[in-house]
């Protein structure tokens, strides 16, 4: 039996040696959540705690992320959580362009294809820049955009709100709007699908 695509990606991440980050990692962090999640959250990269446990957002910013999800009426088990890079950069340095390119083309983008979510929530600048290069998070946070047929919602990184308390009300307000954004995305997807009483296009072209 062949494994479903998402499981195969998870296994490959665990044994990945494609970039130098594998030398210093304790555990790779593929991401976790339902294979059919409607929302995928993309952080920057594993930190100290994530590297130890092999799970995303389990340190202080993860605790805050759980609170933010609760404000949106969501539980962690409802969403798929992953990162731009799957291994912790040493001393939490910024990931290098080559690390970002290798990891996203091999793992993140295929994960998104496999899950096919309605919404991608980017957490922080690095994640946003993958989908909306040149934008400023301070200007567009919380505003949904259509990107390649999916709704993208750029959010501030939870750690930014923990380190700069003045950001907290902003990120909380953005998360509280997620249910409304998801409902809108569902309505748009439903109106784009052909109705049962409508003949498919091939049939129409016969008349
Ligand atoms: N910060 C991130 O961007 N990702 C994690 O998984 C944890 C902290």
Provide a short characterization of the protein structure.
46% of the residues lie in helices and 11% in strands.
Outline the biggest β-sheet: 5 strands, mixed
Domain count: 1
Number of strands: 5
- Strand order across the biggest sheet? 2-1-3-5-4
Mean pLDDT: 93
3D shape: globular
How would you characterize this protein structure?
The chain has a single domain (3-187), classed as Uracil-DNA Glycosylase, subunit E. The longest helix has 19 residues, at 97-115. 46% of the residues lie in helices and 11% in strands. It is an alpha/beta fold and 207 residues long. The structure holds uracil.
Task: Give structural attributes.
46% helix; alpha/beta; 5 strands; 207 residues; Uracil-DNA Glycosylase, subunit E
